[in-house]
Fold:
Amino acid sequence: MPAARHKPLLLLLALLVLGGCSFVDKTNTIEEISPVVLLYLDEGNDGSVKLSTIIPPLKKEKKSVITTSSNTLIEGRYLRNLKYYRETKGGQIRMIFFSEAMANRGLTSLLDTLLRDPEISSRVFLSVVRGDMIGYLNRQMQSGQEEIDLYLYKMFAHYEKQGQLTTSNVHEFLARVYNPYADPVLPYYAVANNELRYSGTALFRGDKMVGKIPLSDDVFFQMLREKRGVQKTVPLSEADVVLGSIKTERQIHFTDSFRNVHIDVMLKGRVEEVPAGQKTDSPRELQEFERKLERRIQEKLEKIIDRTQALRVDPFGLGMHTVGWKERPFTREQWNQRWPDMDVTIHVSLKLEHTGMLDSHADRR
Amino acid sequence: MASRVGSAGLFSISAPFGFLSLAFWANRMQTLYYLLYLPSVLAEPVMIGLILLAAGCSHLNILMIARCFAWKETPGGYLGIVRTLGSAVSFLFLLAGLFAVLMKGIVLMMGYVDIVHHILFPALHATLFGILLLCACVYLARLGMEKTVRFAIVAFVGTIWVTFLYVPFAFPPAAEYRHLLPLLPEHMPKGDWQTFLTIWAAFSGPEYMLALPKEAVDAKKLKTALISANAFTAFEYIFFFVICLTFYGSDYLQRQDLPIVDLIRYIQLPFAERLEMILIPAYAISVVYVVAILLLYAAGAIQCLARSRLSEGRAPFWLAFLMMLLLTWMAGRWIWPDEWKAKEWITWLSWLDASTYTVLPFGFFLLGWITIRRKWRVRHAGGSS
Structure:
């Protein structure tokens, strides 16, 4: 086709593209927007939602925490824009912290609202925080840690990669909320002494927080939660022993009648610290030492199972193991009723490696 | 469609289409839009069996389509239809066909435009984008049927690489294989015929080849191409369904509008985020390809309908473009802004695709068989007298 014949088509395209500006009903001029990285949601005194964030993120200006109080999340965003000379945008949200009160109230409607915005990724980290989060953020910024939002994001990303602590994002949380045979969990942080510290795992029934696993039990909770994992440090304070680089493997078997569930936890790793005078010279002594530690770990795991049964939550997704090739023996409601009364048998097997090192040190002592 | 092999018209074809052109054409027609939302319609693991069942039924249809081209006694294309049905019935048939291709083209295009508008460019006017996309379709379709069909290779290669981005979702920790259970149906769920209708519609597309002139295809090549395309389509549906199911779980998957797109939004590479910015535009190649083919089919139908009034030049083509332009504008103004209306149209498209894929291959096969039988009887009667 000769070039002249292209001209009308090119003209038409040019007109449409150039004229496109007049059809645009909202703009994203970079100087006019301010992407938000962190959100903190708390319950107001009158039941409203207090929405806080750091502004301006990613810009070299003086930062501050801005808080709005409203009945809905979107209204809060609208009110925030009335307080600030740029339009805040959600495309860069990386973390959402919920206060304990907010988590007790239920998170699904809040997360659904957030996910309606296609700019917001379902990879956004979620966590529950206890204490004065706004005060913590303000103090961090005043003490020169201006990029506290990015610092926290990197910390979360590190925890996720490491896989030893509880981390969760919007997708993982909602996938568990809608799963009939599992309940969601979120990391539980606490603000104390001007520090934000990982303090365990928040347990949810549906989308409402109903309890938590304290930090002292969290490492054992992780052994039950993941099919396979690695725990770099397993402190057994009652036995004055610290195990290290422990590879964990969990297996679940139900009896045919689904009245009993057997959980086998296999651990393999090293002893990092032992009490003075601990004898592991002979294989028999080492075996006795291992059995003793197994009993300690088993007690911890049983305590965790008891707690989850008492709270009527299944954070381990045990119910999913009841589903077979041919049938689902329980509905969501039936499983929720059955799980708290189910007999759980836990069996721990521990295999200690590199015990020669342990012996040589023991000899010197 | 008129058969004028070697001539310089819009529908002229210099040589029969190759295996790749035919296979990729069929595959892109089948998977274009259904691939995006089929997983959330299926949701239950037992539906894997239903996909295989639909693929098996589709295989039978493909054998019938290939058979129609293999019979030497029956004329193919438009002439074949007229000779078999008579001019009055052909007129109605072409009118219905024009409506079908226009509707399919508009719903596919606006469905895609809606995704772009919702996820990539919420600030852009959806109708304007639809019209721009239609211009791209015209740009391709104006090259004629032969070049447009051969563009299938570009359309396939331009979009198939996207599948590799989903491979990490097939493995833990993203995939929870227990979501695939139970694989056998516990009971007959209500309303499953509607799901089967959607799956069946998701295999439609090869029936459009029935309008090709016989000279444009080699029957044997067509058969192997369509069988390969059908098998690959079934693989694609199962692959994406399994990935979505193991990632979301059945209950959560049902709540997703476009699970395939949402899945890609979950990928976070150290050097790139928001991969949907690349994936969704890549799909435009397939959309432009399929709509361009449908535009040519509409032009062909107009040409055949108004044979005495319109010359065989470009007038039917531009008329088809104007009709599509007007319909795009109307759909963008009155249908797509209302989510429920848009969903209704998508459901109607499923009905339309399921109907055309059920009726056309069987109907053409039956007509061909009747024609051959008649000829055989005439020949037999002549021989005996």
